[in-house]
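Go through this:
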Amino acid sequence: MRPPNNTLDPRAVGWWRAQWLLLTAAPVVVLAVLGALIEPARFWLLLPAAILAVLGIGCAVLLPAWWFRTHRWEVTDEAVYVRTGVFRQEWRIAPMSRIQTVDTVRGPLEQLYRLATVTVTTASAKGAVRIEGLDHETAAGLAERLTRITQDTPGDAT
């Protein structure tokens, strides 16, 4: 099986970095404030704050670029193909005849980066297929195309 053709929007790297930094900032700020206020425990609060900050920044720099190289997606007249994962790669294929709904979601951070997520819900027990990190206009066009293709595709008789 060949990998899906399409990469995500390059702005997804910045979006993922911002998510990592925000996720890291919350515990670092709490530990730093507590370390500043509680003098007897200052060292034991500031040390993990510094370690978390270094690890979070390292992850924010390295992981998103790596993820960008491995995430792929493609839509054909027959199915939606998504490949995600770095160490544990997951390939998801959603046949058009099994698609029930197509949703486009844009959270606040995605809106800032002009990105969107397309969620394709199927009759699968595994759950929806998500294509994250798409340009918001590409996502809207993809949702429209998927809706049109699924309307023209006869349902699965099984």
